[in-house]
# Entry
Amino acid sequence: MTTQGYARPELLAETEWLAQRLNDPNIRIVDCEVPDGYNRAHIPGAVNVGANTYLKGGQDRIHVMSEAEVAEFMGGLGIGNDTLVVAYDSRSSLLAARFWWVLNYYGHTNVKVLNGGWRKWVLERRPITDKPASVARATFSPRVNPSLIVKGGDLKAQVSKPGVAIWDVRSLAEHTGENTRGNKHAGHIPGACHLEYLSVMDTEGLTTFKPASEIRRMLTHIGVTPDKQVYTY
# Structure
């Protein structure tokens, strides 16, 4: 396994590792693309998240699914309390990382992001299929980890505090306010540093995460360091 000096390499699954475990019944591979992409081709045995790729609540399209909703959703994907999940996408791990976060937020830490995702898998000529996977429903018991989320009012209280770094991972145009994305307010949280999430990805190559040394250098440059409490948005 290539670790690239990552601080937590166990949070990633390398393509070679996964290719050797495609028939492991204890692993649930999750394709985080929209159904059209999944139907064209996907990793054998993978299930699809469907159109709700950000896992937003049915009655609340801003926030993440409720406990009841996520229990139903994950159970339908065949993800049980003991299932090892490997998530992937073709968007530099944007949606796979979102899926990883939602599972962690609801107490399921047995999950990895496929390093390099769909692009690396295909370039390495690993197995693909257009046949949808059929899995049995499982029991998923959500346990909220409130430390993985911060509410607006709480974050507002952290602005300008020493020992705090607020990291804006959106595009530069969103950070500067040039791109409003239709929102009432544009720009960024006062004092927030900026580094688009794509900057930590090898977007010119296999869309893997860049080596840890390079990521650390970029984060240190913007003031995101291990001694600080970091908030991202």
